[in-house]
From TrEMBL:
Family: Belongs to the class-IV pyridoxal-phosphate-dependent aminotransferase family.
UniProt KW keywords: Amino-acid biosynthesis, Aminotransferase, Branched-chain amino acid biosynthesis, Pyridoxal phosphate, Transferase
Primary enzyme class: transferase
Source organism of this protein record: Paenibacillus thailandensis
A GO molecular-function annotation: branched-chain-amino-acid transaminase activity
Signal sequence, renumbered to the chain: none
NCBIfam families named in the record: ilvE_I, PRK06606.1, PRK08320.1
Cofactor: pyridoxal 5'-phosphate
Descriptive protein name: Branched-chain-amino-acid aminotransferase
Length: 287
């Protein structure tokens, strides 16, 4: 396995960063998770746009142009010889001194890791996940603006811990007003009376690339879609619910906080969207 470490390709054992890296010391940096399907990097442009937007927002100068970054990603995938997998792209503020001032870090540091990935068994896509709502709140819009995919993931880690404690794969986070925001690393959708709903990002959700792809698919398939805030009550009484994310793809939710959602397995619209999604992933990408 070859890892891109700031311009060099090194083995996993040799892929090391400085203890003075501000990504490590302060969570000062940004990242992307990207899928490779049949040798294609899925939605690469969208991921790179989000990365460079996150960088601009936190005043982080990425040392590679967008084209150079694309080349580095393609080359790292090529060297690892993976047809299907996952790319973790990290840009940290880079090594500096102690003290959180980014001016102490002369240059950002770029890491690209390519790995195999499987998070849920196929059975989960048919039967759906059990989920719970958690007490962590996705606050908007503060320094941890959900639109910035920053290395500050402690809030999400705490959501994952609550999910683990409840014995479930993904949990639901509300915002401070009590509206449903997203999961620990997935966006959320519900379906009611044939209409697909997802919270607008201002409620406190990352503008997920998979979310965007599903919204596009709804348009193509003629499924009515509404981006509007909803509460846990709406999730409990929904006909269908599902999470979307780069790693999870489109995964049905069969139970939330002890309430069975719809039929208690992946509903027809969720199943259709997953099938259509799996059709587009192999064609919509950069080789
Ligand atoms: N929400 C959060 C907090 C995430 O970290 C992710 C993962 O990237 C998502 C949602 C899903 O976004 P995407 O579909 O771009 O992977």
């Amino acid at each position: 396995q070859w890892i891109y470490l700031n311009g060099q390709y090194v083995t996993k054992e040799n892929a090391k960063i400085s203890v003075y890296d501000h990504g490590f010391l302060y969570g000062d940096g940004i990242f992307e998770g990207i899928r490779i399907y049949s040798g294609n990097i899925f939605k690469l442009k969208e991921h790179l746009n989000r990365l460079y937007d996150s960088a601009k927002s936190i005043m982080l100068q990425i040392p590679l142009s967008l084209e150079q970054m694309q080349e580095a990603l393609v080359e790292t995938v090529r060297r690892n010889g993976l047809r299907d997998g996952y790319i973790r792209l990290v840009v940290s503020r880079g090594p500096g001194n102690l003290g959180l001032d980014p001016l102490r870090c002369p240059e950002a540091f770029v890491i690209i890791i390519v790995e195999e990935l499987s998070i849920y068994p196929e059975e989960a896509y048919e039967n759906g996940l059990v989920s719970v709502s958690v007490s962590q709140r996705r606050n908007v819009p503060d320094a941890l603006n959900p639109k910035i995919k920053s290395l500050n993931y402690l809030n999400n880690v705490l959501v994952k811990i609550q999910a683990n404690n409840a014995g479930v794969g993904e949990a639901i986070m509300l915002n401070s007003q009590g509206y449903v925001a997203e999961g620990s690393s997935d966006n959320i959708f519900i379906v009611k009376n044939g209409v697909v709903y997802t919270p607008p990002c201002y409620v406190g959700a990352l503008e997920g690339i998979t979310r965007g792809a599903i919204m596009e698919l709804c348009g193509k398939l003629g499924l009515p879609l509404k981006e509007e805030p909803f509460t846990l009550h709406d999730v409990y009484v929904a006909d269908e619910a599902f999470f979307t994310g780069t790693a999870a793809e489109v995964i049905a939710v069969r139970e939330v906080d002890g309430r069975t959602i719809g039929s208690g397995k992946a509903g027809p619209i969720t199943t259709r969207l997953l099938q259509e999604f799996r059709q587009i992933v192999t064609v919509d990408g950069v080789q």
